[in-house]
Write a structure and sequence with these properties.
2 domains, alpha/beta, two-stranded antiparallel sheet, Nucleotidyltransferase, domain 5, six-stranded mixed sheet
């Protein structure tokens, strides 16, 4: 199992998909769950899932979970689906946050309605999973099952939220771009007459 320190992760990003009574038909009709997924990436652009939570719960419980994860992880962005009536849910959460003096970076996210959801999820996750850059924690059993059974899983709440959370992550420079920037910085230090120890340290540092 890949181990990484939380201090090495950047751009903690969450996404919430409030259940709106939608149903997914695969073998039988299944009522959608509300889902919250949190991710972050490291300098190698490996993506680590921090939270993968889903439940058929009351609205109050979902709001409590949003505040709980926001307090625990302090995400840079907490996306929330805003299609249709779900935008009203986001507005209500923001009003409650302001009323309680809570800093909540809730951001409305409009999902493309002209794009098939299964296709969107597959094309969004396949490059990350196929390149071995997605890492789950042992307790993320439901998410692992949805990934394994996709596209035939009777529920897609978690992988749908995962795809959107990953999409909200800011792009990272490629390894070649990082190496080029590092080489230029090291050359600048040499040209400026920096001590050898500082140059050596910069040459070893991942950018």
């Amino acid at each position: 199992m890949t181990r990484v320190k939380l201090a090495d992760l950047a751009d903690v990003t969450f996404f919430c998909d409030p259940a709106s009574g939608r149903k997914v038909e695969v073998v039988k009709r299944v009522r959608a769950r509300s889902a919250i997924v949190g991710v972050a990436h490291d300098w190698l652009d490996r993506i680590f899932v921090l939270v993968a939570w889903a439940d058929r719960c009351r609205t109050d419980t979902l709001i409590e979970k949003i505040f709980e994860f926001n307090k625990l992880w302090k995400p840079r962005v907490f996306g929330c689906e805003a299609n249709g009536l779900q935008s009203l849910f986001g507005d209500a959460v923001l009003r409650e946050a302001r009323f309680n003096g809570v800093s909540l970076p809730l951001t409305p996210v409009m999902q493309p309605t002209r794009v098939d959801k299964t296709w969107r999820i597959r094309t969004g996750l396949q490059p990350v999973i196929g390149s071995g850059r997605l890492f789950l924690q042992p307790e993320h059993v439901d998410l692992r099952t949805e990934i394994k059974d996709s596209p035939m899983s009777p529920t897609v709440d978690l992988i749908d939220a995962l795809e959107t959370a990953i999409r909200l992550l800011p792009p990272r420079a490629s390894r070649r771009e990082r190496d080029t920037e590092q080489d230029a910085y090291v050359q600048y230090l040499r040209d400026s007459g920096a001590p050898a120890a500082i140059i050596a340290s910069a040459a070893r540092q991942p950018q």
